[in-house]
Amino acid sequence: MPAPPDFSGAASRMPPSELSRCRWAARTAACAALVAAAWWSAHAYAHRAAYAPWPQALTDILDRAADCEHREDLLGADAAYAEGLTRFADHAALWSAYGEYLRFYVHDAELARQAFNRALEAPRQDPQARAFALRGLGELAAHAGRDADALRCFEASLALCPLADTHRSLCHFHGSRGNHAAAAVHARRAVAADPGDPIALLQYAGQAQRAGQRAAAAAAFARALERAGCSVEGPGEEPVHCCVLYNAAGYCALADDRAACLRWLDAFFRTPNHRHLSRQDVWNDPDFVALHEDAAFRALLDRWLPEAKIAKDANDAPLTAPR
Questions:
Q1: Contact yes or no for 319/310 (Cβ under 8 A)
Q2: What pTM does this model have?
Q3: Which residues, including other chains, have CB under 8 Å from residue 306's CB and lie 6 or more apart?
Q4: Is residue 208 within 8 Å of residue 240, measured between CB atoms?
Q5: C-beta of residue 262 within 8 angstroms of C-beta of residue 250
Q6: CA gap 323, 306 in Å, rounded
Q7: 47: exposed, middle or buried (C-beta count within 10 Å: 0-12, 13-18, 19+)?
Q8: Torsion of CA 70, 238, 244, 149, to 10 degrees
Q9: What tens digit of pLDDT does each residue of 192-216 get?
Q10: Cβ proximity of 81 and 106 under 8 Å
């Protein structure tokens, strides 16, 4: 994949209202694409091939879409996927990538679910694409509170292909539910599957810090920043995935470096796609429990995620931070 261009495109400066319009346009295009592409599975292929190689043209389209996603250029990503759906709607690889775009960037769970299922039904299959689609369905189920379904999808994904993405999802799944031993297992496996993945390295750093393995945690944190093109002060000139920034904040919180944690959180909130997490998601994150009474932490939430400032109820349900 070519190196990502400078973080100077329209997406980096896009106000929330414009970003909302782009997401609306992406949803509209996605609906039309899903309807049109139904023809493929209903009429085009009576016999489904076994695992098929990706054409180079499809690889180029997916690379272009991923580059646009990296820069938060939703219109560019939407154009790339529209071309892909026109030319390669029979390929699972196209649908699994498109589903993740709809889930993570467009924030449309229903369209993402349809796209992931299209990946599983596509005539031209690929084990990695199927595994990625199952992982996406697991993420949707976990977000909807269907934990048993989520685990089934994640396990089916790993049975096909041990993707670092799926181990990362399971690390977050178990960690957010307080099972840090299981989270640590999947953090290690994610790094083993992709030693250069900065998000996996940051998850591993957080789990190692929890276990008191401070030297290993610090080494993984430093390696993650290097791989992501960041310094200890924050992101550099190139675009950085928002999950790198968020997980860096989580590690710093666990390492009791409050100032660094708030600096990384602020950098995360300045990315357009920080809205894939709600105020409740951030508040309930176990990494930030020690900051619940911190005025600066609350101020960041108030500034970037001002909705639903409600107190916990008498039953101690996991709601958002009180104002």
A1: yes
A2: 0.81
A3: 279
A4: no
A5: no
A6: 9
A7: exposed
A8: 10
A9: 999 999 999 999 999 999 999 999 9
A10: no
